[in-house]
Design goal:
alpha/beta, GMP Synthetase, Chain A, domain 3, 2 domains, 12-stranded mixed sheet, 4-stranded mixed sheet, globular, disordered C terminus
């Protein structure tokens, strides 16, 4: 933890706002500095490329990256040589040939991140160090050049924000993991403000009926036009606003939200409460994959930012509609290339093309969840978050969660809408038994789902697995 992070919780609110302003000044220069507008223009130009044009561009960038990594990154030099791979093989690889390279486990990056850093780049001070949220308890260290940071922001400006009709330069709000109001029992405002970026920070940890007036006060005081951050936190806040009959005194233009799966009922609730459409965004701190929602509601992957593979249980490409592991190859980070990186999420390709016309940007059906969220059966089977597909298309379910209490005992937690009833309960039980067998199932309606310490919800929780992991 840096000195600034240690001091921040002890400052008065005015001092914390000043600290955020200083942070915002540095952050703005990093992300929107030299080259940013040119990167944005290039991503926008490629939006309407054909599949053939995008493929040609992607293959060229991929070959350059593979050769660079083989020649300058110790981790890949050793692993690929051990696998019998030579430079000549890399120079003629197509996207489909990536399957011939070993997968890069997250554990390898976590254990020795500098082994994946190019030897041709100085590690300090030019390289920037970022940490993932560490959903397994241990964060992963990722290194970028200033150019990488601006490229990552540029693709979001062109697509995540641009497709929603807004810009990162607009006044915006963020609900995220940052402890902007450090005291959990804080009676003061649950928001802080960064005037440099015109950004309102709101706590993800204080959302309650008692604190609702403070959240609404922050929005009305600073009037952000773009809502960003955790989707589930926005949904919880929106539900409270509707329940209490509270509305904002102005209308934001759009919400660009991520970190959690967004269901149609969640989107409807957010739109009704805030008066703004919610657009889904899937990305990662590692900046090796990005998927963003277009106005037609499709979640498009950006292959010019990172190549995405979806693999089934046997390691083969998953068929459209079939959930599988996400394997990512970031094309832009030459400081610490992530090639065939197992990011730890599950998703599925869509069976359809999108009518928006972005044929070069393939469509995801959904992001299912984390591949570490599994249930453990007595016969040794380990079933991942694909079991949570029981909620796909389920009527009356705003949010759902499967909890394994024992080998034969499961709880289906549901945040219900007015349509939910006995018929929907039985359909969920039938759907779950089809996936895991004849087990005892109870359905529990709740106001909100159990969340992680970072404020995110899990689709699947196994008490057995969590206890086994804890006990080693």
């Amino acid at each position: 933890m840096s000195l600034a992070q240690r001091i921040y919780p002890h400052l008065p609110v005015a001092g914390q706002n000043l600290a955020l302003a200083a942070f915002g000044l540095r952050y703005r220069r990093q992300r929107l500095g030299p080259g940013f507008d040119q990167y944005v223009a290039a991503f926008r130009e490629r939006d309407r490329w054909s599949e053939e044009m995008m493929r040609s561009h992607t293959v060229q960038r991929l070959r350059e990256l593979l050769l660079w990594s083989f020649q300058t990154v110790p981790y890949y030099t050793v692993r690929w040589q051990e696998a019998g791979i030579e430079e000549g093989d890399l120079a003629k690889m197509d996207v489909e040939d990536l399957a011939g390279l070993p997968i890069t486990p997250k554990e390898d990056v976590r254990r020795d991140p500098t082994a994946l850093v190019s030897t041709t780049l100085p590690r300090r001070p030019r390289l920037q160090r970022h940490l993932t949220s560490g959903s397994t308890g241990t964060p992963t260290t990722i290194y970028f050049t200033p150019q990488n940071v601006r490229q990552a922001m540029a693709v979001r400006e062109a697509r995540s924000f641009g497709w929603a009709g807004v810009s990162v330069r607009m006044p915006r709000s963020t609900i995220g993991a940052r402890l902007v109001a450090p005291q959990t029992d804080s009676n003061g405002p649950v928001y802080r403000y960064n005037p440099i970026e015109h950004q309102l920070y709101l706590s993800a940890h204080h959302i309650s009926r008692e604190n609702l007036p403070s959240y609404v006060e922050g929005f009305n005081r600073y009037r952000p036009q773009v809502l960003t951050g955790f989707a589930y936190s926005h949904y919880l806040l929106a539900r409270l606003m509707l329940a209490e009959g509270v509305r904002l005194q102005y209308q934001p233009q759009a919400a660009v939200l991520g970190s959690d799966k967004i269901t149609p009922p969640m989107k409807a609730t957010i739109a009704e409460a805030f008066g703004a459409r919610a657009f889904e965004e899937y990305g990662a701190v590692e900046n090796c994959v990005l998927a963003t929602e277009c106005t037609e509601g499709s979640l498009h992957v950006s292959p010019d930012f990172g190549i995405l593979e979806i693999l089934d249980a046997d390691g083969a490409p998953a068929a459209p509609g079939q959930p599988g592991r996400l394997i990512c190859t970031g094309l832009l980070n030459r400081a610490q290339p992530l090639i065939r990186y197992a990011i730890g999420d599950l998703g599925a390709w869509s069976k359809r093309h999108c009518s928006c016309g972005r044929d070069g940007l393939p469509v995801l059906e959904s992001i299912v969840g984390r591949d570490t969220d599994v249930v453990v059966m007595r016969d040794g089977r380990r079933l991942n978050t694909a079991v949570a597909l029981i909620f796909t298309g389920a009527r009356g379910v705003a949010e759902g969660q499967v909890v394994q209490d024992g080998y034969e005992d499961f709880t289906i937690r549901v945040v219900p809408t007015t349509e939910f009833g006995v018929e929907q309960e039985e359909k969920l039980k039938i759907a779950l038994r089809k996936r895991i067998g004849d087990v005892r199932i109870r359905v529990q309606t709740v106001e909100e789902l159990e969340k992680t310490t970072s404020g995110k919800s899990r689709l699947v929780i196994s008490r057995l697995r969590d206890n086994n992991d804890h006990n080693g």
